[in-house]
């Protein structure tokens, strides 16, 4: 039975995120066994006592099509009270937790997922393609957090986006929609071409001169890319680092240049519930203006999850789709 504040969701579609690949490859520690997956869209099947509310204030009810945050927060600790629930002292993350026989459904690569209390939940429109909705739970919301951390984006600002993968292309679209002149940097020609389709004014290979920028977003995790973001900031510019989630070489930071340039360097990890709301609003309005659906390939069953992981490793598309085959649900329990 569902505990107070829990929600049972039938997974419609999940996508293979780069974080899943890092866990599978061993480049990032992860519990084993466990259920991976944290980018997904689904439909609410049942709600436990003390039903939570969606981000728009409406109660979570069976039948709602939803996306949910990558993490659940306690909402009571010092960090939560300080406005940083994404760094909760008791944070639990979908697709990152050790297997629990009493509550095994805590990841997106399953027929169903049980949402913890303290999870941000957002309703998504029925017309939104599942391939577009699923990445909102991680990629789109993370980009919303990064763009928000850069401060107000004004018409005519120059913005640099380092890395034109799933996050980078989304960032290009968000920044361009706010009126920025966006320059994308990526070593791969096909990704640079995609950036132009998502609204970039220019797309450059790594090492090309860029000129000063007002905003620089680093989404690749490359130390060289971090250095580029710092080196090209104009006076009053902001660098937002979101890709460096694994140890890497240090970069040079000239404190005099930072001081005299009035620069800001901001780190983004996980995201605030408000960022999930922003992400849903953005993708609902803009998904048909750019080829977001084309960024997700495949239609793998859970039995073929290894094939989806292999295809994602090969980089055949920014995301691979996993379509679970839902089992019959019994209202008397979590599983038949």
UniProtKB/TrEMBL annotation:
The Enzyme Commission number assigned here is 1.1.1.1
Cite the entry's keywords alphabetically: Metal-binding, NAD, Oxidoreductase, Zinc
Q: Which domain of life is it from?
A: Bacteria
EC primary class: oxidoreductase
Gene3D superfamilies reported for this sequence:
Medium-chain alcohol dehydrogenases, catalytic domain, NAD(P)-binding Rossmann-like Domain
InterPro entries to which the protein is assigned, alphabetical = ADH-like_C, ADH-like_N, ADH_phosphonate_catab-assoc, ADH_Zn_CS, GroES-like_sf, NAD(P)-bd_dom_sf
Any single Pfam family the record assigns to this protein: ADH_N
Q: Where is this region: Disordered?
A: 315-336
Query: CDD domains recorded for this chain?
Result: MDR_TM0436_like
**Residue span(s) of domain Alcohol dehydrogenase-like N-terminal:** 4-117
Q: Cofactor(s) for this protein?
A: Zn(2+)
Give the Alcohol dehydrogenase-like C-terminal domain ranges: 167-284
Q: Per the similarity annotation, which family is this? A: Belongs to the zinc-containing alcohol dehydrogenase family.
State the name under which the record lists this protein: alcohol dehydrogenase
Taxonomic classification: Bacteria, Bacillati, Actinomycetota, Actinomycetes, Pseudonocardiales
């Amino acid at each position: 039975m569902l505990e107070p504040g829990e929600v049972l969701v039938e997974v419609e579609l999940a996508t293979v995120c780069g974080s899943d690949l890092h866990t599978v490859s061993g480049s990032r520690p992860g519990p084993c066994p466990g259920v991976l997956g944290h980018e997904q869209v689904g439909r609410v099947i049942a709600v436990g006592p003390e039903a939570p509310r969606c981000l728009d204030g409406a109660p979570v009810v069976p039948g709602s099509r939803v996306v949910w945050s990558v993490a659940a927060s306690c909402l009571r600790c010092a960090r939560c009270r300080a406005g940083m629930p994404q760094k909760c002292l008791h944070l639990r993350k979908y697709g990152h937790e050790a297997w629990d026989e009493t509550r095994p459904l805590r990841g997106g690569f399953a027929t169903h997922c049980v949402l913890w209390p303290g999870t941000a939940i957002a309703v998504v429109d029925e017309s939104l393609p599942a391939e577009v909705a699923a990445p909102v739970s991680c990629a789109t919301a993370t980009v919303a957090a990064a763009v928000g951390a850069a401060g107000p984006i004004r018409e005519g600002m120059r913005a640099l986006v380092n890395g034109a993968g799933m996050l980078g292309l989304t960032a290009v679209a968000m920044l361009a929609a706010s009126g920025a002149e966006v320059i994308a940097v990526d070593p791969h020609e096909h990704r640079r071409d995609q950036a132009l389709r998502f609204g970039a004014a220019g797309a450059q290979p790594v090492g090309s001169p860029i000129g000063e920028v007002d905003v620089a977003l680093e989404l690749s995790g490359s130390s060289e890319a971090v250095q580029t973001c710092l080196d090209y900031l104009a006076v009053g510019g902001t660098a937002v680092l979101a890709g460096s989630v694994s140890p890497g070489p240090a970069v040079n930071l000239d404190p005099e240049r930072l001081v005299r340039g009035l620069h800001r360097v901001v780190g983004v990890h996980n995201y605030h519930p408000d960022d999930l709301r922003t992400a849903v609003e953005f993708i609902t309005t803009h998904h048909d203006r750019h080829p977001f659906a084309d960024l997700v390939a495949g239609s793998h069953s859970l039995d073929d999850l290894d094939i989806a992981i292999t295809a994602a490793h090969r980089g055949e598309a920014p995301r691979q789709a996993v379509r679970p085959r839902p089992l019959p649900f019994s209202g008397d329990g979590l599983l038949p």
